[in-house]
Amino acid sequence: MIVSTQKPLEEIVAALEGGSRVFIIGCAKCATVCKAGGEEEVFRMQDALTAAGKEVTGTIVIDETCHMLRTARDLRSRREQVEEADFLLVLSCGAGVQSVAEAGEKKVVAGTDSRFLGNIRRFGRFEQRCSLCGDCRLSDSGGVCPVTVCAKGLSNGPCGGMEEGNCEVDRNSRCAWVTIYERLERQGRVERLEVITPARDFAHKRHPNSLTLEK
Ligand code: SF4
Ligand code: SF4
Containing domain of residue 72, as a range? Predict the structure, then answer.
């Protein structure tokens, strides 16, 4: 899921300068799970903006704001409230904000910061395990991502800063390459680490990116 956090209220209010009427949009998927833009946060934002002197013309929580057609359709169902507003405040990831921006010509305000693609450890605890590099090497690294879990993103490790199994960048964290070694050792295939992994092809990481599935 995309992990996002809500921007401070002062920053949101500053971005709404020049308009007094706001329509608030939340997302029922990732932004709800990380409590940045679900129903509860949308209602709280409505109260906060009202207290700050804004008029909230309406609110909606769209099933997946990254779904462009669904977002456009759901906003059409609230056409009057949307039209009345000076700004559309979007409490979803940046992809969702752009779905809203593309659905019309209204000014949009991003109410969250998109942080990372996260695994869910437990409710309220998210961990970054994949950086979407486009060239997955997990098969060779015991299922531990060196691009993301190693603080330096090294394709071959550990670096010279590893000490007693811990990372140079954060001494409280296990070195990713030690974890990789230990995992491969338990699986009886530590010889994989004798092969130097070639430098990554960063062309896989180019953006903007797109994908169209074959029929
Ligand atoms: S190597 Fe790491 S960053 Fe790249 S796709 Fe695999 S898990 Fe994601
Ligand atoms: S100590 Fe290990 S995890 Fe930390 S930067 Fe070096 S190789 Fe990466």
Answer: 2-116
Question: Do both 108 and 53 map to the same domain?
Answer: yes
Ligand 1 mutation target, pool 128, 129, 137, 209, most atoms within 8 A of CB: 137
Is residue 200 scored above 90 in pLDDT?
A: no
pTM, rounded to two decimals: 0.94
Short-list 205, 99, 89, 100, CA closest to 147: 205
Which pLDDT tens digit goes with each residue over 36-89?
999 999 999 999 999 999 999 999 999 999 999 999 999 999 999 999 999 999
Q: Which H or E run includes 109? A: strand 107-110
Q: Check: CB of residue 30 under 8 Å from CB of residue 93.
A: yes
Ligand 2 environment, Cβ below 6 A: 150-152, 154, 157-159, 161-162, 167-169, 175-177
Residue 210 counted as domain residue:
no
